[in-house]
Every structure is written in C-alpha cells, then in structure tokens.
Hints:
The protein is of the alpha+beta class and 431 residues long. 39% of the residues lie in helices and 12% in strands. It contains 17 helices and 10 strands. The longest helix has 19 residues, at 409-427.
Amino acid sequence: MLVSLALGTAACAGNGQDTTITVASVDFTRDMEKLVDDFRRTHPRIRVKFVFLPERVLRNRLSKDIADEEGRYDVVSIGPWEAPIWASRGWLTRLDVLAGRGAYDVEDFLPVVRTALSYRKGLYAVPYYGESSFLMYRKDLFAKADLTMPERPTWPQVAELAAELHDPRHGIAGICLRGGPVWLNLLPLNTVILTFGGRWFDEHWNPRFTSPETRRAVRFYVDLVRSSGEPRAHEAGPAQCQATMLRGKAAMLYDTTSFAGGLEDPRISEVAGKLGYAPAPVMRTDSSGWLWTWALAIPVTSKHQKAAWDFASWATSKRYLKLYGERLGWVGVPPGSRLSTYRLPPYRKAAKAFLQPTLDAVNAVNLTRPGLHKQPWTGTSYVGIPEYAGLGGRVAKEISAAIAGRQSVDEALEKAQLFANDVVEGGGYRD
C-alpha cells in the first residue's frame, strides 16, 4: 500500500546537498524549461530534470511508475480524468494545506478548474492551464460570403455555414473536426453527443451507444466532417486541426479554447487578427463545451516532496504567468487557470480577441450534468472510470472508420455498445 511522505521531512536529500527532482510533463508544456532559470534563482539547491512526452506515452508511463512504487518522478502532469481516480487509489499527495500557504492564492484559480482537480473536497493537483471548447471562425471568409455567425450557434446552423464555406478547389475546408482513432479525438464528438441528448452510459451504467439520441448525434458529426471537413479527417487530431487553421485552410474549427493564443500569434499564424470566437454549438442544452486542464501533481512515491511542491507552486503561480508574458509573449500565456491573469493589462491587450470568450466557455461548464441526463461520474467529454482510455480508444477507432467510409455509423455504434457492455460487466459497475 502506498503511504504519503510527510512534506516537511523530505525537503532535500542529505545535509547541505543539492536535490534533483524529475518533472514528467506533456510535451506541449516545454516552456517551463525555458523559464526554469527563474526558479533556480529562488531555489538554488534544487535542480530540475524534465521529461517531456506525448500525452498517451506520458499517461501510461506515469500510471505504471506510481502503481509499481518506482518513484522516478517527483512532479507529474495529469488532467481531471486522472486526478480523482488516482487520488482515490492513494497515488497522489493532497495539496490543500500547501496551496493555502503564503501568497500562492489557491482561491485565484477558476472555480470549475479547481473542482475538476479535487476528490472528496481535497485538492490533488494545481492547474498549469485550463480549457473548454469553442467555435473559431474566419471573419474574412464569412464577410466575403455575406454570412453571419449566430451569437449562440446551433449545430444545424454550423452545418449550413460549413456547407456554404466548403471550398475544396481552393483548399478550404468548411470546418475542421477531430476524427483520428485515439480517444482524445473524441472530445468534440462527445460534446455533440451530450447536447443532442445522448450519452455513453445511463445512471445505472447501461451502455447507450445505440440509443436514438446517440445515433443521431454521431450520424450528424460523421456526415458533417465527411461533407464539409478537412481532407483525411479520419486521421486528424488536435495538432493537425490547429495546423490546418494556422495555415488558413479551414473556415471554422471547433476545438479547444487553448488554441486561440497560437492562432492569434502573427509569428506563426496566417489567420492572426482574422478570427472570431463563438460558444460551443448546442442542440438541446444551454451550453456544450468540455473542461480539461493539464495540472501538476505530486505522486506519493516522490522522495523529494517539499522540493516538488516548490517547483509545482512556482510553475502554477501568478509570478510564472507574468514571467511567461514578459519573456515569451503575452498572447501565449497559459490560459484558463488563474482569474488574476485576466486582469493583467498586457494580457488583456494581447488576448483581446479571445479573452472573454475563453472565460465564458470555461465558466459555462457543468461538471456534474453536462448533458440532459444524470451521470454517475463527474466530467464532461470523458467517462470518469479507469477503463475509459482503453474503451475510448476502441470506440474512437470505430468512429474513425465510419468517417473514412469503411463502415456505417450504425455498425460503429453496435461495436461500441458491445465494448462498453464488456467494461461494465468486467468492472462491476452495475448494482
């Protein structure tokens, strides 16, 4: 059984010796390494070794390391899917007391993000950034076609706009949507399922992939991406969709709010200054955005927990966010974590186009009931069970095959229903 180390007793290895901590993080948080000299100035006896990995590789490696009590990592990046599950297993150090000390100001975190990283009212990770989802669209292309984005678009309206703007002869997709065969590509589709009134499971853990509402939602999504989506949509993930929009090859993109900083950066984007932002499209719900955050947690297996907290609190602090803006550019400051960021004049100026839409999207998330029905887990675009990554991967492959035209949506959902039933039966979720 894992036992948490006392944070006050594991500060540094040895008397007067330097401590080396290992930080394992998702690969798109590499900017921490660019700014770590600031941490070293205030913590000269702590050395930091970074391990940056793709999301799927990171998640698999971390869960094995902690479960096997190998203790290779002192600070780890996790999200709101892992936080409550890993906390329930005793894998993570509870951070409430530490986060409540000094000027760290845990109350400055966006409430819904803080809640997503908690378990039984205890905080087990602190957010590096937070995100929801919204609709990004080319204002110049809309104006040229004499089209107007509704203030609160519905999915049928988006489909009509995408059909009008789809121009494959000139390399412009009407809309870019994820369709690749891994579970993280299900995030947009899952919000469509929820707002159409569908769901993966009901409150008694009965799979609902073949319900009329879920069928209707998935058929809509697949038809939309096949008729007005980007080329080879069945392979597309978040990186490909962002790149498509950066190159000006899509009229609309429904994806994470965290893309906006890069899309508005003229150093890398061909559409900077040309974008508008609308709420996540809906069908039967008032809102439909997802909630995700990459956050820093401390495994109980860390041998240097005080030093680990020193680093985690620095990388998620007000100081860090201000330093990021000053040294790496304000438009790219990690969004969606601290309320105070949105009051900084340089950030407000740089992020003017997407600042309020991002805040509105995150604050609109309903963690406990994002769709029309009660659900026996907390979360928006994923199912909060340990088996979700495996189940989601299998479902994503079937949906991707439907997008590619290798099978029908009904065939994909029949298989998903069987996969989900296997998980329920094997995991003992039914009473």
